[in-house]
Amino acid sequence: MADKKIVITIDGWSSCGKSTLAKQLAKRLQYTYIDSGAMYRAITLYFLRNNINWQDVASVKAALEDIDIDFRVNETTGLGEIYLNDENVEYLIRDLVVAEKVSEVAAIKQVRESAVAQQRKMGAAKGIVMDGRDIGTVVFPDAELKIFMTADNAVRVERRFKELYAKNPNITIEEVKNNLEMRDYIDSHREVSPLKQAEDAIVLDNTHITPDEQFKMALAWVKERTAA
Length: 228
What we know:
Elements: E1 7-12, H1 18-29, E2 32-35, H2 36-49, H3 57-65, E3 69-73, E4 80-84, E5 87-88, H4 96-106, H5 109-122, E6 128-132, H6 135-139, E7 145-150, H7 153-165, H8 173-189, E8 202-205, H9 211-226
Parallel strand pairs: 1-6, 1-7, 2-6, 7-8
Antiparallel strand pairs: 3-4, 4-5
Helix pairs in contact: 1-9, 2-4, 2-5, 4-8, 7-8
């Protein structure tokens, strides 16, 4: 489909389907998919497991030195999965315990600097799709295609609830709503790399469209930018 490889960034609020769209595009274009949010979740998981005091800069710096994160392709699904120090943590990082702390950890300057450096290295050769909060504004400000995803809050809560309920039937929709609101506030108000729409990003509101419809829209945008 593409005559040249580009960098595609997908930013936006929690539970807007960023990773779903990113994975679809990567698979169709044969690009590398990098889940930046998973990187922060993996770091959070490490901090929680090892009782790291992330309020202490020295402790954070020391812990980051012991963290190795990479993505490996699952031969069955063809999708990349995240590994923390050689352990597949793709599913462990989706737990609500991690979700409740990830925005705090991701707001730490040293954590973001470490993650951004790794992300830029991964995207140096282009041909990548990366989703997150600050990919189009901070990590790849010169990306050829930037998408900013949003959706109605109630819709986002319902989507997230269904996802978590499948793993934990005891979870309540109120817990999910509170978690999303907390993450939204922290993500958009943090001092370092807050969530915001890049000026040249295309806004994709998927409140009333299907995943297939948004995929087709995104593919059209890719075609426009690769048909050089």
